[in-house]
Structures
1.
Amino acid sequence: MSEGGAPEAWCVIENLWRSLYCRKGLSLIHDPMGPDAASLLGNTYFWSSFYTTAGNNDHILYVRNDSSDSFLRINYASLTSSKTTNYSIHYATGTPGGTLVTGVNSNRSILNIAEATAYGDADVTGLTPGGVIRATTTASVTSVNIDLGNNIVLGDGDSIAIQVLDTNGNSDVGITLIGHYADE
């Protein structure tokens, strides 16, 4: 290490469109790099929830960023259901309760663990909906994939939830959020 604690080793990772410069042990991922570079560095994660009896107003997936060093940027959401179902993707507050969900790293050669708390696979209790980011509907036995364009940025302690607004009775639902950690 040099004076000031800066690591000496520099590396360059190139992909088709751009180069990413990173310091050993410290990724410098900027907005334009997005999920491609983050995935190469092992900083992209999937959170999934499968709930067989989702009813009206059930929160079916909750993810909170627990990293004090990096922002969690949500890139995509994939929603599927057995019946026509209305969803809300929104910021959330409160103390969640339910079944813990583990974030899965997209880079299988790097076994980083997501610095996040997530709940799903049942109704996540204790949440208060905040600002709505997106509302959408899935038709019966279909999927909707939503490109969120890296525009949902969660700082330390910020959280997002997906809520079933109306299922016309209970529905089998599956939800996956994909996000990556970035320093800026």
Note: The helical segments are 34-40.
2.
Amino acid sequence: MKTVTKSWLIKRGACQDQVDRFTQLYPKGMLLTRENVWICHKAGLDVIWAACHMMTKEQRQEFILFTVRQRQPHLVELFTSIGLKEHATQIKNLRFDTSKEAQAAIPILNAARAAARDTMGAARTATDARDAAWDDWDTAWAAWTAARNSWGILDATDAAREQQIEWCIAQMARG
């Protein structure tokens, strides 16, 4: 059974806040069990980050495909709701059964993201004098995420996040 320790987290570049929280929970390290993973998650630790650092390259690719397939219907709903039906249709028609298909989808997803950002920017310009913040990608993406989450679409902190964690646990159990 694998063990996670403070030094393991530090070696892989974990944030100090995450290292401190982990150390408070498990000062001597933690056996990697389903129960312990859920305890860490409920304590606010980013267990998916840790899981990704334990995965092989192939497992990470599988995880990305799993996550994209999981979110695809929500993306379609999101792009439809903001009037970007052409992008919604393109996203709906994407296939993510292989890494090659996922790679081919990247330009389509990036174009959809840019169109959504432009749409959100245009909407904000009409009502918000702070449109200059859209020049800063981090601020724009944070605003976009907040708007998306306020619609209740693509809420990865609940059921979707739990499915991801269970997927990660299953992968770690396989070795």
Note: Confidence is low (pLDDT under 50) at residues 129-134.
3.
Amino acid sequence: MLLSRPSLIIVEAAGSDRVRTECNYLRVDEDGTTVATDGHIAVAVSPVPRKTYFPVPENGRRTPARGICLRPGLVEEAIRNMPKGEKNAAMQYAAFTKITQDSASVATVCHDSQHTAQGAVGREPYPKWRGLFRNVWKKIAGMANATGGRICFKRSRLLNALRILDNAAGEDGLVFIEFGDGGTPMLLRSVNPRTKQTVMMIVRPATLAEGEWMEHGAWEHGILESFSSENMRKKKPAVRVEGGK
């Protein structure tokens, strides 16, 4: 089984709680899906396509039927061992070379040299993350017809907008997001707790072209079950934060 850099990098979302220690891992499901959560943020990445080529032999090792929980230290070492840069993207993978009840090893290749990261694995039951995503989707699908919709962002512009808002609002706090139908600009609001100043931001969207919305694939359907993208497609038009076309 292969794990890509995106599969591993989400370990940043794993918990570090000394009490809720079951969240302090990167979860790898049997199909190669990876998950990380700290109880507030949950991130899942779909499996690496089966036809992806990577030169490290996998030795027939697969994750157990119950999946496996990798400690952040092992994952971070594997990421460090990967070659850097876009030109090396085809080599930014790790392969399981050993899995036991107590430990796991993953191998990477950088400049024709193989590197192995190994360590103990978590033994605690991992939170039922699929149920979490399913419940959230049910709420979204149920609310969309009456009060909301869906919106698409260009990641770099969204992150830049949030960085600007964060700098203006100071300490970590809440951001309130409101958006309407069609081409209505999105309004973000927050408050600087030190200066008591309110910060407002407008981000102008553009309407997506026909067929441009990212529909749910088979992997997503398998998690979200009967709440398909068809339900949402009938609700509200989609908009993307990108400036006018």
Note: The longest strand covers residues 113-122.
4.
Amino acid sequence: MRKVKILLLSSIQPIASNIRNELAKRGVEVEFVPNILFGRDEVYNSSPAICRMVTDLTSRGEVDLVVIANNLGAGIEKARAVAENMRDKTIVFWTGDFGTDNVPYKQLGITRFGMTATIQESVAEALALTAPASVH
């Protein structure tokens, strides 16, 4: 079984479960980076401590994928902290249609975007995973 490590910067509880369940169907075991610094206060801001953690983890290649909630633009600073070589393995998501809200992320070189309802498919696509075998 393939294993991947994901840095998930979101406080939406079902997202981790949805990602874990979808990837398990595709034969992938997910480990989420323990994020003890990311609490309620970090949802709508980006403290220097969180940004340093993001930079450290991504610059050392300790994660396979970064998933960031936009949270009214608070994700921009977190995205800026992602090492440049990991920005192609970064997904930013919104709870609804993001329209042109993705422009600041595109300026950082991030090109993967999604919505809460389908984030697990976006993660699978970013990891180049094939669809699960259909059950007959």
Note: Strands lie at 2-9, 28-32, 65-69, 90-94, 112-115.
